[in-house]
């Protein structure tokens, strides 16, 4: 068992991380100190080992983190796997926070500070990799490398030889170095290469462009007919306006059994998932099959299984 536990179905409030940690620690141990110490540093390049600071001495809790993009979820790090197993056994199906039953599971990966404690060499490599990703120049190099790798794969599927592929990649590299007027080289249907005036990123994502329906000078995205789909615990919301956020969708489709909202910005649609089919059906009965978002009518239906 790992020394990091994953908690889900926790309340989204309080929004302040420090207040959330205080409330969680007070629920776990009523005698715990209300002053939350500074969290364990995870990205320090120092090789000196520092003693761990415990948030709770009884269960040897070292860190509590709540990611911004995972609402109602958090991670608890312990000093070792034995204390994590003891905590999981003690509070399994018994931990309630603001009236909600918090689900406790073992995390898929350990925390960075634990990796640093067990294997300093691996941790230094990880720290170097994360530091490089913050450099804009390095990010651009990684992006161009990813574009070339995907383009090479596409050209191989089209049956081009290695010599022809290398020529296309050389033209792409030349176009990426040109300032202001970047061009991407794509293979023609007859196997030869041709230059187009799209950005380098468009070459890799040309196949993922959503289908559009041309009506005069206006372009309108296709709406998939979901009227014949059987009831499902996942709802499909299509035709959303630009500027809509997942928070606004979560408020509109609010329910006690709401699991998550996945907003696909490229296609202006969202998937709203509930715990069971009955909860999703109640929301459809309450909202109907269409809703108005910023003077735009969105279509609501059941997603395809």
Properties at a glance:
305 residues; Alpha-Beta Plaits; four-stranded antiparallel sheet; 23% strand
CATH topology of the largest domain: Alpha-Beta Plaits
The counted number of beta strands is 15
In the residues, how many domains can be counted? Answer: 3
Average of the residue pLDDT scores = 75
The helix-strand sequence is: EHEEHEEEHHHHEEHEEEHEEHEE
The strands making up the biggest β-sheet line up spatially as 12-13-11-15-14
Q: Which spans have pLDDT < 50 for at least 5 consecutive residues?
A: 41-47, 179-220
Outline type:
flat
Largest sheet properties: 5 strands, antiparallel
Radius of gyration computed on alpha carbons: 25 Å
Quickly give the CATH architecture of the largest domain: 2-Layer Sandwich
Strand content: 15-25%
The number of distinct helices, counting runs of at least 4 residues, comes to: 9
Domain RRM: 233-305
Biased composition (Low complexity): 193-211
Region (Disordered): 183-217
GO molecular function, one term: RNA binding
């Amino acid at each position: 068992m790992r020394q990091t536990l994953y908690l889900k179905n926790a309340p989204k409030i309080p929004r302040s991380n420090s207040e959330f940690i205080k409330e969680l620690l007070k629920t776990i141990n009523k005698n715990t100190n209300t002053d939350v110490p500074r969290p364990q540093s995870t990205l320090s390049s120092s090789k000196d080992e520092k003693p761990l600071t415990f948030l709770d001495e009884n269960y040897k809790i070292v860190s509590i983190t709540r990611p911004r993009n995972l609402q109602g979820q958090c991670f608890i790090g312990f000093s070792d796997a034995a204390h994590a197993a003891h905590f999981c056994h003690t509070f399994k199906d018994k931990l309630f926070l603001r009236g909600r039953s918090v689900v406790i599971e073992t995390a898929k990966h350990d925390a960075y500070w634990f990796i640093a404690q067990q294997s300093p060499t691996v941790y230094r490599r990880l720290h170097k990799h994360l530091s490089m990703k913050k450099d804009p120049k390095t990010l651009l190099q990684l992006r161009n490398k990813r574009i070339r790798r995907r383009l090479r794969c596409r050209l191989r599927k089209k049956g081009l030889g290695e010599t022809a592929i290398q020529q296309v990649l050389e033209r792409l590299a030349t176009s990426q170095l040109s300032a202001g007027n970047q061009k991407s080289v794509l293979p023609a249907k007859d196997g030869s290469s041709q230059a187009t005036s799209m950005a380098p990123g468009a070459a890799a994502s040309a196949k993922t462009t959503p289908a559009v329906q041309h009506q005069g000078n206006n372009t309108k995205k296709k709406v998939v007919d979901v009227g014949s789909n059987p009831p499902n615990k996942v709802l499909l919301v299509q035709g959303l306006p630009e500027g809509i956020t997942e928070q606004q969708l979560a408020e509109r489709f609010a329910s006690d059994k709401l699991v998550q909202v996945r907003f696909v910005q490229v296609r202006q649609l969202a998937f709203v998932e509930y715990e069971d089919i009955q909860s999703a059906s109640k929301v459809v009965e309450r909202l109907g099959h269409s809703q108005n978002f910023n003077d735009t009518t969105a279509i609501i239906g059941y997603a395809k299984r």
